[in-house]
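User: Can you help me understand a structure? I only have the sequence.
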Amino acid sequence: MKRYLIISLSTGGGHATVGNSLADKLKDHGEEVLVIDLFKEINAKALHTFICEGYNLIATKVPQIYETIYKAGNQPIIAKGSFSFTRRMSQKRIMEFIKSYDPDVIIAVHPIVTEVLGGMKKRGYIKKQKLVTVITDFLAHFVYVHRHEYIDAYIVGTEITKANLLEWGVEESKVFSFGIPIKKEFYAPINKANNHVFTILVMGGSLGSRNMTNVIRRLFEIDENIKIIAVCGKDNELKEKMEKLVGRSKNKEIIVYGFVNNIHNLMDSADLLISKPGGASVTEALLRRIPMIIPYMLGGQEKENRDYLINADVAIWVSKVKEIPFIVSKLINEPEILDKMEANMDEIASSFSIDNTIEKLVNL
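Assistant: Let's start by predicting it. Here is the structure, written out as tokens:
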């Protein structure tokens, strides 16, 4: 039995989802696992406020600024020095924590964690532990690969992600395209509902999305009978707005949820997903073979995820929300389009295996 330390940061919900999913599966295998939110665990309040709370504020309030920051950080000349201060501020406490827990393998599920740990290993502060990075989107930001020579293995979403890492100079023997690890429920056999009414699942991610209101109002313009399932995440204000729409239309049934733990069931009950393209949520959709419409997203990594999905013909990008009624009506009346998208999803997701990921981690 090995001891694993999984380290994330609370910027959005995808990184934590991946970390906890890996932990659950490793525990099922009989391994000892601890998952931590790094800056909270080592009591680095200033770093948590600046990086994590700052991210969540910018991502939800001024996403254009976030995209600018993302692009700047993806330039090696800028990225190489961007997080040296973060490492210097935190490495002493990280060393103390690692010494206390004494893991055999440390798994980073966040690019900043990868950068900090890689920098520490370069300087000899981490010696015996294997370092693994799980990339939680479909292209790799430079921060993931800046210290790649000190990372023992990368778990990535697809062969496209793998090729992206090789372009950055990562050794091919270190990269394993097993799919982004998510909750084990999503790998279970699909149990699609035999819907009498075309059902649309609308989500905004763990932080919610104010754009969901406009999307659902546009769905009310569709002539056909539809059922709408709205999942608002942790955004209580959004949930209240959604609930005001219940009963507004005779041929539009709407069910509203906040944060839920059974998304796999909701996906199986729907014909179409309207959502932002976060890495974990996209992987969930691929595994449940539910075609996507993407009407909103965070710039940076989610824009890259969107481009991947469009090129793979498993999602439709809607640049203007007013186009949604036409597109959804077309999909309802031409089901062969959705059938083709589902077949493409099947081809992509057939190689996803959290069991292969666990086997790799156990045998490191």
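Now, to help you interpret it: The chain has a mean pLDDT of 90. The chain has two domains: 3-181, 186-349. Let me know which part you'd like to focus on.
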